Structures are given as structure tokens and as C-alpha cells.
Amino acid sequence: MTVLVGRPKLKTAFKNVRSVGPLYTSGPVAIALDGSKIATCVSEEILLTEITSGIEICRFASDTTTINSLCITPSSSHLLVFTASLSLRIFEIPATTPSKKLVHPIRVISRAHEAPVHVCKVDPTSTYLASGSADGVVKVWNIRSGFVTHVFKGHGGIVSALTFDYPQDMSSVARQQKMRLITGSVDTRLRIFDLTTTSNSASGGKPEAVLEGHHSVPRGLDVSLDGQWLVSGGRDSVVLIWDLSSNQAPLKPPSEKGKEGKGKGKDKAFSPTLIKTIPVLERVEALGILRPDEDLTGSSSSSDAIRFYTGGEKGIVRIWDGKDGNVLFSLGKEHKKVSDDQEEQRQIVDVMYVPATSSVVSIHADQNIIFHSLSTQSLTRQLIGYNDEIVDTTFLSPVFSEGKERDSHLALATNSSLIRIYDTRTFDARLLDGHTDVVLALDQGANGRLLASGSKDRSARLWVPLKAKPEHPAMNWGYGCVGVCEGHAESIGAISVSKKVDDAGGMNHPQFMFTGSQDRTIKMWDLAGIPLAYEDNEAEPSRCKSLCTHKAHDKDINALDISPNGRFLVSGSQDRTAKVFNIEYIAGSGSSAPRGE
Known about the structure:
Distance between the termini: 53 Å
Shape: elongated
Low-confidence stretches: 172-176, 248-267
Largest sheet: 5 strands, mixed
Number of helices: 2
Oligomer: single chain
């Protein structure tokens, strides 16, 4: 009886360990005060995600309508959601243990407002919720009981910004009992309401003060911890700093001159004054004051100055010194040469400050969430909200040569000009900006250190890992472009890097690369001069030399691959043929240039 020697058994069933799914499509975003969890919207659903690991904790039950506004209480106990059905839904936030069960609301107020609510805010004690609607009505809610404590009318249109003024300076006992609500609306005015004197009154109340200074919609409001300073920013590209401790008579508009005697001195009790106007030269969409003890290493600002952040149309977060009106530093990269559509996509729609982690988080219109450290002034984490259609993928090993694990990162090409790189353990991501049209093909070389990409812009690009900074090696990972291959007449739909490497100097350097295009040709490129580490952010990528061009097929070339020994190339085309080519490559030495065909 003949005994067959079988081959080793291969797995025929696989289990999905982790998925790179949609995290954020559009709408509001909220972060817990301790910086551990983030709530995002995916279509009409709300996801709660653990930030450090990227693991989804739970999903909250929706009412199948668009989510207009949401916020998390400072105690991280409740999530408050306003939807397009005009309802207020209150959820209890579960523990960090992931669960597949939907979290249902503990209370639903079916008609919280008569118009959609676009802004909401919880006070520092996690007791009250303020909501502003499109019909100019602001309501204050008791979160635990679910009833309205205050209603403020008279805004000249949509309420665009809200903040509480509740001084937490322990040295000022007298101020601690005073709670105010400050609102901004499309009539460009800021209104300050006293929540103490109008307590238990749901019939409404007049503002203590009306501040005029903006000429467009105010979008950001914040008050310092001691309650002395109010900072406001809007789409008129200016930031205004107000002194809330002033008791001087306010400056009246011309229409109200001559009425000083009618107020009997009541308007002198509380009258904030404008002390500084700072032009920021961009439409401000979000603004906030940093804590006095925030460590801004490398900045010249003193801790007793008013330091605040702004974010808007340019897509960067800027940290300002309110005393001098100067920018201390900027977080993010300003894109100077972009189209109008790209500029609109990359602008910031919201910025949140997380004191517990000394970071600011910017939410961008292109569905990206970026975390910046204030102490190191660097990008620490990036969450990509939505990838859309995925065209190609490849594993990368940027630190494999250093004895660390292989295939630690994943590159994705989607229907976008930006390449996505994911850390497979934490889902921390980076975007590679260089191509001007959709990226169609990806491949890796040099044991996963080199990434090659082909695009509809008729060029191929070569990317290598950033050289790690010794002080923060884990935070400063990423890829930079070191080479550009241009010469095809049509889009590049296939790319392959040689697997056989040149071991000279122990660098495992790839020798050559092939690209296949819609122009029906295959080009061979020399990679001898390409570095395997990206050091200079300002350096222009080198231009790769084409060794040969071959008309290989009668229609578009869709696929290329090089044999492990680097001797054969196979191509697949829309002409229904696959062809195998013999590769001849002679490395350059001394004055002789490399040759290949």
C-alpha cells in the first residue's frame, strides 16, 4: 500500500480579528474630559470609541434621523444628543468594555425645541445642559430630571455658539455661586444671561448684557477659569477679548444714545468691556482658552497671559497670546497649493481642548480627526473617519530592520489622492499628500520599508519612513516622499517593486521598479539613488531615471508582479492576455550608469 506524503495543511477558515470600518462620516463630535473616549457620527448612528486602541466600545440606538448636535458631560456619565426629529435623547455612557449591544436612551424628550438644535453645552458641574436652536431660542435643562429650568428668547436668528461662565477659582469664593450663560447668534451679538437670578423660571429672562463687536456669525466662545475673561471668535476673521469683571457703563450704539437716564443706573451693575481685537485672517469655526498651568514648551508666553487656540478655514490650529495678539505656534500643515474643493475639505469644523492629555483635537471637513500635543507641538494621533472605496492595499514594515515585528502597518489606496497608512495595533493613521489625482496602485519593497504608489496623475511616487526623533520616537512616525517617476502619457494602474535587494552596506536596497499604464506601456525605473529614510521635510523628491520603455499590450495594463529572484516580470491587461518577460538589469558602478530591459 502506497502512503502518500501530504503537504502541510493550510488554513481554510479565517476569523476576522479587527476591521478598519467607518468611524466618522459627518456631524458633531464629542470627547470625554479625560481624553479616553470619543463619540462620533456614522450616518445616523453614534459610535463610542476608545482613543488609545481604536476599539469600538459601543453604539447608541438612533431614531433614524440626522444627528444635529451632541455632547458628553464633564463627568463622562451621560451622552446628550439632539436629532433632526427635534428630540433630546439622554444616554448613560457604559464602561470601556466593548459590547455589541445597542445602548438605549434612559430618557427621550420628544419635542425639545421647535426648530433644529445646532449647538449644545454642558456646564462644568455636569448638572445643566444648554441648547440653542435655529429659531433663536435657548433652553437650559436639568440633565438628571429632564426638565427645563430656563428659556431665553430674543436672539436674532440661529444660535451659533454657547458657553457657561462658572468661575472655578477657589480663591474667589464670592464668584463661585454665580453661573451665567453666554450665547452668540447670527445677528452677530453676544448675550449674557444670569442663571442664578432667573432660577426656577421657564418663562424667559432678559440678558444681563448684550455685547456688540463682531460683524459676522460668532462661532467660538470661552471663558477663563477665574471668570474674568471672555474670548469670542467668528467668521469675520477676528477674535475679541472681553473683560467680564468691568463695571463701567457699556458703549451704546447710536440708536440708543440719549436713553441713559431711563435705566436708573441698572446697566452699570454688569457691563463687560472690549479690551482687545485680534485679526486672525481666517474664518474662525472653533475657539477656546487654555488653562493657565498648560505647559507650552518653547513658547515665550508667560503662564499669567490669556492663551487661546483658534481653528478655521486654513485647516490648522493656532495658539495665540491674548496679551500681545501674536501667534505662539501653529499645529498642523497649511496647504498653500490646493484647489478650492480641497481647501473646503481640509478646513476645520471644530476644535476641542483636552487638558488631561495636554492636547487639542481638530475635526476636519474631510472626515479626519487629528490629535496634537501642546507640550511637544507635534501630531500624536490621527483617526481617519471614512475611507470610501478601497482600490489597493499592501502591508508595510517601517521598523522591521530594527528587529521589531513585520507587517506592522497597512497602506490603503482609496478613491482619493491621499494614501492612508494605518498602525495595525492601534489604528493610528497618517495621510500621505503628494499625488494630485486618485491613487490606483500600491506595492512595497525593501522588506516593507519602501512604499510605491501609482496614480491617475500619470506619476509614480516612492515613500519611506520618517527618521524617528529620539525624544519622541513613537509619536513622530510617518512617511515622506523621496522619489517621483514621471513619463507615462496616461494614468498608472499597476506597479511592482523588485523583491531582490542590493545588500551593499546592509541597507537591503531595492534595485528597480516597473510601472504599467493606460498608455499600454511598461516602464522600468532605477531605484539605486533612493534613500530608505526621510530626514529633510523641505527637500524636494528626486526624479527617478527610466531605464527602458516597452509597449507590452493592446489595452490598459492592470497588474504587474516581479519574481522573488528578480529575473521575470508578469503583466496582465484588459486585452485578455498575461505576458511573462525576462528582466536584465546591470547595476551601475563607478562612472557607468545602470542598465535594464
